[in-house]
Write a structure and sequence with these properties.
The relative contact order is 0.14. 72% of the residues lie in helices and 2% in strands. The chain has 184 residues and is mostly helical. α4 crosses α5. The radius of gyration is 16 Å and the shape is globular.
């Protein structure tokens, strides 16, 4: 394990926690709006697949231990496992991993492809978990159209914008880091 990457992983995990605690808006609806997808996608670009997934695992673990880092009430603790939105948090791990696998340093178009792949994983895991919890744990009559109308359609446009921001910022960070490494 590389000490530099471990410290960067800790920083990204901490920033993700802060983003979950501070940068949430709107009503505490079934699925809240937040800036967390930007952090998830950035983690994959900046840290790569393994460390990006590790940063999101640290974020999830801290939340499950009770730190108020999640985007909707109760904001943390094991009870969050029964929330339909917990699948998105599980999806953060897979999304960061996929982004890191697809991205090729200093190539903006691979950053775009990577964040789109990450969003696909995020939504696949998140919506599947959402459906399962609603139907089999909460025993709510649930349909695919309800799940898409609640957990996908209201968010996809803003998440695509967030993905574009993450691709651009992440690629710039990697380019500047490469320039700094050349100067060493």
């Amino acid at each position: 394990m590389d000490v530099r990457y471990l410290s960067r992983t800790a920083v990204i995990a901490a920033l993700t926690c802060l983003a979950g605690m501070i940068l949430r808006w709107g009503s505490p609806a079934l699925v809240p709006f937040s800036i967390l997808p930007v952090m998830v996608l950035l983690a994959g670009i900046v840290l790569g697949s393994n460390y990006g997934a590790l940063a999101m695992t640290v974020y999830m673990t801290l939340g499950l231990f009770g730190l108020p880092v999640f985007s909707s009430p109760p904001f943390g603790g094991l009870a969050y496992l029964a929330k339909p939105t917990f699948g998105y948090i599980l999806g953060y791990i897979g999304a960061a991993y996929v982004v890191g696998k697809i991205y090729r340093p200093q190539r903006f178009w691979t950053a775009i492809a990577a964040v789109l792949g990450g969003l696909a994983v995020l939504y696949s895991v998140g919506l599947s978990y959402f459906y399962g919890i609603m139907r089999w744990v909460l025993h709510q009559p649930t349909s695919l159209s309800f799940v898409l109308a609640t957990g996908f359609l209201p968010f996809i446009l803003s998440d695509l914008i967030k993905a574009g921001i993450a691709a651009w910022v992440g690629n710039q960070v990697i380019r500047r880091q490469a320039n700094l490494n050349k100067g060493e």
